[in-house]
Write the C-alpha cells for this entry.
Amino acid sequence: MENIVLAGIGILAYFFMRTLTGLKIFPLLHEILTALTGSAVKSTTQFREQTAVTFRRMSLDEKRKSMKYRYYCFINEVLAAFGLKQRGINVEGFTMSLIAIVIAISIVIALVTSSVAYALLLPIILLPTFIALIFLGSRMRVRKRKIELLDAMDILCAVMTDGILKAVKENYAQFPIDIQEYFKKFVSNIELLNMSVPQAVQELNEDIGSLYDEFCDSVITYEANRARGMETLFNFYISENGKTQARDRQIKRLSDSANMDYFASLLVIILFGVFSSVFLGGDSSLWATPLGKVVIVLLILGAVGVFIYIQYLLSKPFIYTEKDN
C-alpha cells in the first residue's frame, strides 16, 4: 500500500516538474550520462544554444504562456542576483548540478531506509522543493537587481534620440556596479566584435532576462525605423516602470504575509504533534505501521506541496491597480 501511494505521488510530481522545467526523463538521463563520460560541457552548450534559438523565435505572448521560459527567466535572475552568472554558471549547468545533488541525497536516504520507493520518489519531490526554497531565499536580491535594472531603463528611455548605442555609452557609468557589466558587454559587442545593433540588443536581453523583453523589442523596432519623434514611445516604459515598482511593493507585503502565515501554521502543527506524542501518551508504534508511514508521507508531502504552491503563486504575474498603491 505504501509503495503504491508513493509511486502514484511520484508520477504526479514527475509530470508537474516536466511541465515546469520542460525536462524529460530520458534526455535528462542522457545528459547525466554524458556528464559522467566527460562531454557535458559540449552537450550543455548545444542544449543552451538550441534553447536560446527557441526563445528568440517566441512572440511576447508565447513567452508569457511558456512555463519553460518562465523557469529559465527565474533561474537566470537568481544566478545574476547572486553573481553566479558572471562566473560562467548558466541555467542548464545550475539545473544539472541541482539534479545531481538531489539524486545524491536521495540515494543516501534510500540506502539508509532501504526503500526503493523513496529512491524513486525523493528526486521528484526534492527538486521543486529546492527551487521553491531558492525562490524564497533569493527574493530580496532579485528585487534589488530588478529595481536597479528598471532605473537603468528609465535613464536610457529618456535619452534615446540618437539611438541605443549612444544612450548606453554615455550613461552606463552611472548605473549600479552590479549591472554595469551587461551594458559594457553590449557596447563591446558592437564596437569590438562588429555585432549588429539588433544582435547586440538580443544578447543584452538574454543576459538581463525577461524584464527587458518588451523594451528590447521596442529598441530593435526603433533602430530599424528611426524617425524624428519616435523616441517618445519610450516614455511609456518610464510610466510603466513606476507602476511596476509600486506593484512590487505590494507583492512584497503579500508574500511576506503569506509566508509568515504558512510557517506559523506549520509550527503549530509540529508543536501539536510533539505535544500529543510526548505529553498525551500517544502510541508511537502506530507510525511504524504501513498505514502510519503513509500518513506521515502524506503529511510531509502536503506541507511541502503547500509551500511550493505558495511560492508558485507569488511568482506569477500580479495585476496592479492604482487604488492598490
Remarks:
- The CA atoms of residues 76 and 91 lie 6 Å apart.
- Residues 146-234 form one domain.
- The two ends are 52 Å apart (CA to CA).
- Residues 33-41, 318-325 have pLDDT under 50 and may be disordered.
